[in-house]
Amino acid sequence: MVDRRAWVATLCGLACIVAACSAPEDHPESAPTPAPGAAGIGDDYYPEAGNGGYDVDRYELDIRYDPDGGHLTGDTTVVARASHDLSRFNLDLRGFTITSVEVDGKPAEFTREGASELVITPSAPVDRGSEFRTRVRYEGEPVVADRGQLGGNGWYHTPSGGAYVFGEPESASFWYPVNEHPRDKAAFRLSASVPEGWTAVSVGETGEATTKDGWTTTTWTEDTPVASYLTMFAVDRFEVETSSLADGTPVRNAFAPGADDARDEAARTAEIVEFLESRFGDYPASTAGGVYLATNPGFALETQGTPTYPIDPNPELLVHELAHQWYGNSVSVHSWADICLNECFASYTTWLWAEEKENADLDARYRTRIESMPDELWAQPLHDMGEGNEFGAVYEKGPVAVHALRLRLGDEAFGELLRRWPAEHANGNARWEDFEQFAEHVSGQDLDEFFRAWFRGDERPADEHLHPKPARG
């Protein structure tokens, strides 16, 4: 009879001897297979917006634009870092004829897909984590804006012969190759040449203009990461006035021919910034001022540091667009479903301005608005409102909801929330859910039902949320 325990012990001993004497097998890890970058960044509302596989560090643009012929020649370098091994990747560019593409100085293959996708295949894969430079040369007549949409994207022509390009949510791709989504913010440098006698304007700190062979070249530099839709370019016979804020921040106001009536409003820029700093903290942009058009594209836009205004802006419009420098520019949306983080708060800032400058009774204004608000506005959520509905209720229902939040929190906690949110999320992106959690953290209150009723709901809130009171400590 065999002793089972001894047999098992013998087998175990033999196994140990064999393992000790055998050479270990070498199993080298196989290198990751390079893969294409995604043709979209992952925004449910705009699935083709932006691109995946890399993160842009900065854009370096050199463009030449002739207003008389409407022709643009561009030479843009995109400096980015790969987030995985890339066999190919996309940039966004609309229109134009592409004359060449290089990646790290070597010619790259490229194709165009759909309305905006520029698909680039480098001569060798780009390694994960490596910085790479993509240079695109292009030329042609830019695509004219669709005036039928709010924030219409593309180029506009002016009666004086000039042109400008700006818009939301996608406008940068109408003049340079870009990863076009606010989730990928980047530094921005532009060198623009226009015929002598014309003036170009853009965003960022301006360098000295030089003129040679009938062309005037000016540079702009924005080192703070900026969402691409917050860049703009305009050419006209602008009159440019410069000054500075109390802290030395340069102020640049550019007036198109026929925009002289905006000078009084522009002169209040420092006053408005000072007011906004009292509510939100230090001014976050490297420049201030504005670009004042003599036409009406149907909207204004909070372009970085120097918003772009239609003809005859009022002070409230300046307050709104400059408030975006905190709410929208410094803290940008993660996805376009989060647009209330921009527009609801910038819209409410005009209420705060009226309270400060006109002694307006905001509680009375609030009561009037909730009693007169039509059912179709109550039916529109302020968060995740659905593709194409981003700008439906945020300007009218939005500030009413923010005032309800103020009533719910009380002035002290609400004021702290307004200051801390942009300070603690500066130069980044945020989701609406992040704001809800942050508001609960700052106030120490459970606000889930309140936010569901006012911001996520699609009906008139119950009375307890229409007439909220601060929670007792």
From TrEMBL:
Q: Start and end of every Aminopeptidase N-like N-terminal domain?
A: 58-230
Q: Which domain of life is it from?
A: Bacteria
Q: Which residues belong to the signal peptide in this entry?
A: 1-22
- What is the source species? Saccharomonospora azurea NA-128
Q: Which PROSITE patterns match?
A: PROKAR_LIPOPROTEIN
Q: Name one GO molecular function term.
A: zinc ion binding
Give residue ranges for domain Peptidase M1 membrane alanine aminopeptidase. Answer: 315-454
Which residue intervals make up region (Disordered)?
Answer: 25-46
> What is this protein called in UniProt?
Aminopeptidase N
Keyword terms: Aminopeptidase, Hydrolase, Metal-binding, Metalloprotease, Protease, Signal, Zinc
Q: What is its EC number?
A: 3.4.11.2
Cofactor(s) it depends on? Zn(2+)
Q: Which reaction does it catalyse?
A: Release of an N-terminal amino acid, Xaa-|-Yaa- from a peptide, amide or arylamide. Xaa is preferably Ala, but may be most amino acids including Pro (slow action). When a terminal hydrophobic residue is followed by a prolyl residue, the two may be released as an intact Xaa-Pro dipeptide
